[in-house]
Design brief:
Length: 324
């Protein structure tokens, strides 16, 4: 049954609101996308929502992982060591949570590839983390690319970086990628991983190319007094906006924005806060069929409607809330 929520119109409400955003998926599979155009839509729906259509992931992710100053006009790229799984007729990109890459392995892989990376990018590495490395994009600034989160589990032929305003850049990237693949293939990291039965780290992925000044942050985030969520992207936005940030969600404070790994776990807490009048409303942002949807839920929306007026109504489950 529908919760019959009120659609958000105009600016954020002045009522005590808590905003909860869910992760989104692409509306179409790769075959349908290929039939519709020359390249995929850049960014997952929630990435586009948080950053705008240019989706400058790399500089915001960098900001979220370091205390160093990020030049807002510098074009930055994100590099990630990955595993490409070979099927009978194509390669599939495995997600970062599937490869179990350690900090030591990441550092050793970068050490091996560093001379080649810095020579081709014509810049030094800005920051190296366990799963993300960052560098000024240099000659690769115009490359059209797609995040690991968007491309994982899919045939990479459709998701490989491509030329945009300058021809030959994708080919140049592919040459560097091949050189690094060969280096890592004969390296000690993959030899040790093979002995442990782990997938090899057999390629390098580039994505998120853009400038910090390209970020177009939505009002729901700009006007929030606190951001909750463990993703580095949210931490970067918090620094960009000078807004307090917590990785873990605790209490539903009005004026907060949350993007959580398991939103269904916090829904009982949020609905209880509505019933106790600790919150006036909860806005849920999700992305059915890839389109942004913003809905307001108040205490009166939390129970199923029934024509049997004498019978106590049952509360809506989380599954019912998000499938409405």
């Amino acid at each position: 049954m529908s919760a019959n929520p009120t659609s958000l119109q105009g600016a954020q409400s002045t009522l005590r609101r808590f905003t909860l955003m869910l992760s989104g998926e692409d509306a179409l599979d790769s075959e349908e996308e290929q039939a519709m155009g020359d390249c995929p839509v850049k960014g997952l729906p929630h990435e586009r929502y948080l950053l705008g259509n240019l989706v400058p992931l790399a500089p915001v992710l960098l900001l979220g992982q370091t205390s160093q100053v990020v030049n807002p006009s510098e074009v930055i790229a994100c590099l990630q060591p990955i595993h490409l799984h070979a099927t009978r007729d194509h390669l599939i990109l495995m997600g970062q949570n599937q490869i179990d890459l350690t900090q030591t392995e990441s550092a050793e892989l970068l050490k091996t590839a560093l001379p080649y990376i810095e020579e081709d990018f014509q810049n030094p590495i800005l920051f190296q983390g366990q799963h993300y490395w960052f560098i000024s994009a240099g000659p690769f600034a115009s490359l059209a690319s797609y995040s690991v989160d968007q491309a994982h589990g899919r045939n990479i032929d459709w998701w490989m970086p491509r030329d945009s305003s300058e021809e030959g850049i994708a080919k140049r990237w592919r040459k560097l990628q091949n050189e690094i693949q060969m280096l890592w293939h004969i390296g000690s990291v993959n030899e040790e991983r093979q002995q442990r039965g782990m997938p090899s780290i057999n390629s390098l992925w580039i994505s998120g190319i853009g400038k910090l000044s390209d970020a177009q942050v939505p009002l729901a985030v700009q006007q929030s007094q606190h951001l909750y969520g463990s993703h580095h992207l949210l931490a970067g936005l918090a620094k960009l906006l000078h807004t307090p940030h917590s990785k873990e969600f605790n209490t539903p404070v009005a004026g907060s924005f949350a993007w959580l790994d398991n939103p269904e776990v916090v829904w009982p807490t949020l609905s209880a806060a509505l019933m106790k009048k600790e919150l006036d409303e909860v806005m849920i942002i999700d992305f059915p069929k890839g389109k942004t949807r913003e809905r307001i839920f108040r205490a009166k929306h939390l129970h199923k409607k029934s024509w049997m007026l004498w019978k106590k109504t049952e509360p809506l489950t989380w599954k019912e809330i998000i499938s409405t």
